[in-house]
Amino acid sequence: MRAAVLSIPISGIAMIVGAAIAYQATGGRSCARCHEIQPAVDLWNQSTHRSVPCAECHGGLFTFEFHFHWKNFRQLLRHLAGRVPQQIALRERREIDRAMAACRRCHEQEYARWQAGPHSVTYRQIFLDEQHNRKRLLMDDCLRCHGMHYPGNIAALVTPVDTRGPWRLLDQEMENRPTIPCLACHEIHRRGQPMGPQRRPRRAGPQQEEFRPSLALFDRRTQTHFSVASMPVPQVYDNGRPLVMSRDPRQALCYQCHAPLATAERASGDDRTCRGVHEGLSCLACHEAHGQDTRASCKNCHPRLSNCGLDVETMDTTFKDPASKHNIHFVQCSDCHPKGVPRRARGERGLAEARRALD
Length: 359
Hints:
This protein is mainly α. Helix content is 32%, strand content 4%. It is built from 13 helices and six strands. The strands form three sheets. A two-stranded antiparallel ribbon has the order 1-2. A hairpin with a 2-residue loop joins strand 5 and strand 6. Helix 1 packs across helix 5 and helix 6 (93-106) crosses helix 7 (108-116). The chain is globular and about 85 Å long.
């Protein structure tokens, strides 16, 4: 009797080890032969990460984490019992952590910029912000941008759900986790060619990519990514006048979170569409892609393209001082010249030079 009881865990361990060895020996392809992850493997074979083994991002035989192997064993039992899920997704927190660790190993500079920027904000910083929570009621829609991979609703994450507080996280394990991880804006299995030295032209030109194939939005409702290539840039209005919108397709991703209200009016909701002197600029004309740093953004164009010939970095705008009443996204010449805008110091010749510099 005792031998029979002991044989159960021994058999289970043998199955786990055997499955892990088969997985490791074939780079993960063995699971796809009779498993529901075949579509994901097919996409991976055509993706920019096709040369990266499955175990690099999803774990393997030498992953020193009991939970990883136990989860795979439970998934194997479900599979053998015919309880196959309709959709395979990274649902567990440890899976997201493991994937992000893989991102960091290969993309050190991008990861460091993201970590130093505002998009690495944590659940504690977002959902325990007293000033914000007193003004706006927390709701499930908050997770659309700040918590795309969180499996529960807002009531499972934070309490109380009101504007009085005091607030605390029910799910304390999420406290220091990022609300916008790498996988919020990048689809790892997206079809595309690997980036190599031969794909990085030395000079700017039409042969350069507009964006990498992985650039995509993760939608928590459908648990899928939507490529930037399929996203339109919305038309935003300024008191009924259609603003000039940049043709940069990458900012379609920015608008998924930094969007105006249903009126499409500029500065409504979380919209930051430029008007005034910066109308028509793309978000990424000033904001560094991963870190969102803007320190050198003015120097990219000024004073070379400045209409007034002044040092724009000393002007009274939010670039110099966040407390300024002149928001850098919406500032107009008339904001600083209420009695009338002076003639352009550069003249027509200077404007022609500016246009040639931008071409």
